[in-house]
């Protein structure tokens, strides 16, 4: 049935994007123009504002107003008003609310002016005096004071609890024939999407607000704005048709939209606020993570014990964490396991989700430790993983809906040429370079969320598919069109997709790698309703060839309603609609996937990396990566490959480049720009091969698992393990910079 699903279809929004026709949050205009807001941020990490002098800024020609906590319009005074759909436990940050400073670079004033240049200049003239208090921003200083995560009783909260222990891991570890224990560190990292955070709030003639915001969840922002400002849902509409990268930074509403709305309400004028690149470092971040892993094994290479302790970072006002430790017990068979997770509260903004939250850092530590265990056992790293292979999710003692990880290891190893690896460190060379080969496993969740999809089919053979989800750059527009085209039996260019608008049918935030499975399932379900309606019309045709057909035995192909059993029995869609006298058929359905808790749902990968390390200088290059991924059915091999490629590149950055540096004397990030915060650039990225292994799965009608996050998981460990193999030096704190290679 599927001419489009599974093919390398190019992005349907590609031309709009490369020609600039696709508009982003800061690019929407109104006749007469908008006002521009520039944010003033605190320069201390903790304390109070004692004096805010805005007179010089107000004196600049073209400045309309300067908003501060002293003169802003009313905002909600209870935490509930600021809670968004994905807020952690705690008391959410309130921009411009009062004189309290909770983190360095906290927004404390908004200068609004006729141009962005005037606003930015005037913002530099705002004078602030503070009463500072002692702050702490160093996780190592706060590690002993870190407290065990308080697991909320809500089902969502419980999802992130450390898993239940099994057996007696302490005893089993002590008694194990072969042991490895190690501490691993991942620093704070920032998302650094290309598009700057921005909001344009337009005051409509009727006094309502249209908000263009950079976000991964328009309905989340909509609900949040209504909460913060006490607005009625119908008085505000939030749009985010395109997004230049989110990676989790846009799951929660950010302060740019609050500030733009504050100014728009105060002035009754349309206002735009765009963050500068340094200001982007005042948003959330991947929490720094100190992990201790203990692995106890038999001499035969099976695991007797896993212990995994983590300390992660959050703010003083909200407890953000994910299930950082559980991946170890999920991936490898071990009768004994314990997990512990403590939170270090720092004077920083609340940490947040970043691509494969918890898995990217958690699996880095686990897979580094597994590599060290393989060395101790003198066992090939792939062989060790096969000996510890887990057929069941041991946390809940249940099978996986599908798990083709063995095939990932095999196909990945073959493509990489792993069998030619000499296990001895420093044994492989290329001229003056030491060559290292390393591997690691990746794992992520395959989730599906409730979602609503509306389809309007018109008699001219066109269908509009609408849902309030977003395309954060992942290719959602395209896969939605592919699924709709196949299930409605129409050509791809007869489908139009409407997303990124809070007034459209309900969607969760685009995150967790769950949108492809959720929205595709929603389209399939709503397309079935369309087919049912078409059949009702087709039956009314005199001597209808489908007079006795039931909807289940029909499919929509090439603009026709056709019997699956007898291709000769068919009715063109256009005939059915014309005969029924209808111009359009509209259906809207909500899919509420039954929780299949009897099985675990996960995507897996095997990552193989080659590094070349200059023996004199210690410069590390990642020359080859093979990522073999098992993620159910692949809807679009082109956009899917891009997702994995992007994840691998980010994994290279995690391994070698990325690190947010704080001057703890001031509690201030000192590399808050993309010159000094290093990410991989073209010269760092060499040969990357992506393989999708076959993995039939029946968790949802199309067998989709999602691909947004699995691509990064395991990459940092594969690179770190390759660096060890090349050099004989084991670096346990990321990023692996050349100064850490001590024996070249
Ligand atoms: Mo993802 S970190 O859930 O955008």
Adjacency order of strands in the biggest sheet: 3-6-1-13-10-11-12
Oligomeric category: single chain
User: Level of helix content?
Assistant: 10-25%
Mean pLDDT: 96
Distance between the ends: 58 Å
- Uncertain stretches of 5 or more adjacent residues: none
Report on the biggest sheet. Answer: 7 strands, mixed
% residues in beta strands: 25-35%
Number of strands: 33
Shape: globular
Bound molecules: dioxothiomolybdenum(VI) ion
Model description:
The protein has 744 residues and is an alpha+beta fold. The protein is 24% helix and 26% strand. The chain contains 17 helices and 33 strands. A hairpin with a 2-residue loop joins strand 20 (428-430) and strand 21 (433-445). Helix 10 packs parallel to helix 17 (715-727) and helix 13 packs parallel to helix 14 (515-539). The longest helix is centred in the C-terminal third of the chain and has 25 residues, at 515-539. It is globular, with a radius of gyration of 27 Å. The structure holds dioxothiomolybdenum(VI) ion. Dioxothiomolybdenum(VI) ion (MOS) binds next to loops.
């Amino acid at each position: 049935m599927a001419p489009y699903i599974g093919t390398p279809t190019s992005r349907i929004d590609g031309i709009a994007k490369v020609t600039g026709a696709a508009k982003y949050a800061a690019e929407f205009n109104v006749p007469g123009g908008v006002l521009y807001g520039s944010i003033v941020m605190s320069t201390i990490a903790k304390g109070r504002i004692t004096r805010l002098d805005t007179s010089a800024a107000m004196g600049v020609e073209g400045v309309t107003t300067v908003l501060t906590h002293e003169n802003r319009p009313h905002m909600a005074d209870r935490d509930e008003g600021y809670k968004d759909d994905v807020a952690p436990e705690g008391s959410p940050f309130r921009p411009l609310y009062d004189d309290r400073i909770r983190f360095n670079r906290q927004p404390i004033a908004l200068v609004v002016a006729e141009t962005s240049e005037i606003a930015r200049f005037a913002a530099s003239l705002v004078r602030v005096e503070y009463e500072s208090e002692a702050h702490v921003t160093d996780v190592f200083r706060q590690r002993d004071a870190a407290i065990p995560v308080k697991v909320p009783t809500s089902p969502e909260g419980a999802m992130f609890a450390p898993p239940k222990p099994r057996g007696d891991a302490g005893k089993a570890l002590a008694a194990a024939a072969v042991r490895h224990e190690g501490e691993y560190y991942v620093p704070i990292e920032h998302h650094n999407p290309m598009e700057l955070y921005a909001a344009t709030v337009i005051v409509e003639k009727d006094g309502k607000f249209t908000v263009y915001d950079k976000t991964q969840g328009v309905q989340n922002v909509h609900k949040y704005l209504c909460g913060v400002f006490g607005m009625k849902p119908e008085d505000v509409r939030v749009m985010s048709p395109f997004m230049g990268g989110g990676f989790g930074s846009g799951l929660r509403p950010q302060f740019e939209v609050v500030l733009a709305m504050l100014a728009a309400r105060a002035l009754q004028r349309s206002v735009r606020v765009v963050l500068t690149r340094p200001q982007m470092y005042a948003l959330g971040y991947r929490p720094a993570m100190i992990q201790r892993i203990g692995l106890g094994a038999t001499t035969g290479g099976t695991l007797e014990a896993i212990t995994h302790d983590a300390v992660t970072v959050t703010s003083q006002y909200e407890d953000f964490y994910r299930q950082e430790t559980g991946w170890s017990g999920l991936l490898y068979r071990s009768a004994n396991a314990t997990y512990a997770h403590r939170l270090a509260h720092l004077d920083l903004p609340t940490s947040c989700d970043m691509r494969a939250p918890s898995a990217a850092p958690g699996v880095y530590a686990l897979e580094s430790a597994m590599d060290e265990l393989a060395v101790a056992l003198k066992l090939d790293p792939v062989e060790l993983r096969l000996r510890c292979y887990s057929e069941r999710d041991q946390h809940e003692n249940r099978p996986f809906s599908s798990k083709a990880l063995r095939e990932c290891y095999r196909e990945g190893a073959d493509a990489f040429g792993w069998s030619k690896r000499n296990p001895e460190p420093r044994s492989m060379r290329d001229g003056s370079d030491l060559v290292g080969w390393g591997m690691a496993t990746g794992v992520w969740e395959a989730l599906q969320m409730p979602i609503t999809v509306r389809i309007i089919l018109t008699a001219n053979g066109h269908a509009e598919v609408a849902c309030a989800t977003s395309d954060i750059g992942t290719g959602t527009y395209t896969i939605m069109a592919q699924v709709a085209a196949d299930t409605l039996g129409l050509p791809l260019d007869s489908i139009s997709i409407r997303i990124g608008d809070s007034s459209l049918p309900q969607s969760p935030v685009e995150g967790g790698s769950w949108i492809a499975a959720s929205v595709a399932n929603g389209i399939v379900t709503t397309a079935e309703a369309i087919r049912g309606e078409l059949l009702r019309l087709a039956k009314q045709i005199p001597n209808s060839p489908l007079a006795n057909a039931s909807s289940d035995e029909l499919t929509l192909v090439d603009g026709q309603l056709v019997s699956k059993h007898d291709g000769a029995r068919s009715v063109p869609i256009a005939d059915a609609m014309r005969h029924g006298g209808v111009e359009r058929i509209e259906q809207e359905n909500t899919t509420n996937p039954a929780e299949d808790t009897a099985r675990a749902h996960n995507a897996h990968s095997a990552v193989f990396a080659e590094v070349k390390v200059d023996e004199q200088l210690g410069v590390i290059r990642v020359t080859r990566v093979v990522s073999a991924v098992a993620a159910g059915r692949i809807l679009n091999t082109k956009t899917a490959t891009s997702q994995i490629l992007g994840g691998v590149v980010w994994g290279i950055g995690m391994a070698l480049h990325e690190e947010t540096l704080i001057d703890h004397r001031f509690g201030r990030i000192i590399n808050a720009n993309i010159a000094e915060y290093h990410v991989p650039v073209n010269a760092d990225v060499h040969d990357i091969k992506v393989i999708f292994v076959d993995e039939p799965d029946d968790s949802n009608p199309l067998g989709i698992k999602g691909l947004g996050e699995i691509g990064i998981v395991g990459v940092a460990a594969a690179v770190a393990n390759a660096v060890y193999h090349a050099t004989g030096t084991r670096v346990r704190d990321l990023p692996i910079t050349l100064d850490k290679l001590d024996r070249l």
